[in-house]
Design brief:
Structural class: alpha/beta
Bound molecules: zinc ion
Radius of gyration: 32 Å
Oligomer: single chain
CATH topology of the largest domain: Aminopeptidase
Number of domains: 2
Largest sheet: 6 strands, mixed
């Protein structure tokens, strides 16, 4: 294959440079991109470096990239980026959101390294996707401003990430219904255990609603905050029980407390 690879943006700190957070996009697109180029060449492909390091502006950087990409005929143009905006995971952008094999496989392979698969997005409005003559995939490896993504990126390392991208371009077709990665499995397990907790709480609440607590006597069973008011109500004949006792539920307790407060406040008026 003949592949053009672009390390997204101008170099860090210059006009047209990338985003930064826990990672610096301009630096990491170069770390990953040059590793991708090396690996693709090793696998026998022809690679054109379509990276522009310095420009007068963002627009200047973008036009320079497209000039480099359109200079020759390519089987694929790959632009490497990192995302920003505090999301999580990897995604690929294609013209019209086309479901190119390469884009799907890159997403899939990065997900196997533990990055959330954000899918394929419609990049028709992105300059490099709109202007490149060749089939173009723009990959956002992960988020520079999300701590967990940055930590995962550093932990996994550039060479595995580059290999995942190369496998996406040159590798075998994938089975999309493959097994979960370990981190996806852990995530799922956490979600399930959180949901189980919520269900338990809801079940307890439902049980309480169906079987309200009944207070028949002014004893230790009655909540501390209501005891004085109930005693006052009984002492003043406002409240009378039957042979079973007072037969009060939680709502009754609250009303009695309110009534006592109301009467006490009127006395002081
Ligand atoms: Zn970017």
């Amino acid at each position: 294959m003949v592949i053009g690879v672009n390390c997204g943006h101008a170099v860090s700190g210059t006009p047209g440079c990338g985003a930064s957070g826990y990672l610096d996009e301009s630096i990491e697109t170069r770390n990953v991109g040059y590793e991708v180029m090396k690996e693709l060449r090793k696998r026998g492909h022809t690679v054109y470096d379509c990276t522009n390091d310095n420009a007068q502006s963002t627009n200047g950087n973008l036009t320079a990239i497209i000039e480099l990409a359109n200079k020759q005929s390519l089987d694929l143009f790959l632009s490497i980026h990192f995302n920003a905006g505090a999301g999580q995971g990897s995604e690929c952008w294609t013209y019209g959101g086309r479901n190119w094999d390469e884009a799907r496989k890159i997403n899939h392979n990065l997900a196997r390294l533990g990055f959330k698969n954000r899918g394929i997005k419609d990049g028709s409005n992105l300059y490099v996707i709109r202007m490149a003559k060749a089939k173009t995939v723009l990959v956002e490896v992960c988020f520079v401003d999300t701590k967990s993504d940055a930590e995962r990126y550093i932990k996994v390392g550039v060479s595995k990430i580059a290999a995942a991208i190369c496998d996406g371009i040159t590798g075998e077709k994938i089975n999309d219904e493959e097994e979960l990665t370990m981190s996806q499995y852990d995530e799922l397990k956490n979600e399930i255990s959180e949901l189980t907790e919520t269900v338990k709480l809801l079940a307890t609440e439902l049980h309480n609603i169906k079987n309200p607590m009944i207070y028949n006597y002014i004893d230790d069973n009655m909540p501390e905050w209501a005891r004085e008011a109930v005693k006052w109500a009984v002492d003043n004949n406002i409240l009378k029980g039957d042979e079973n006792g007072l037969n009060l539920d939680d709502k009754d307790l609250r009303y009695i407390v309110l009534i006592k407060r109301l009467i006490s406040s009127q006395k002081t008026l």
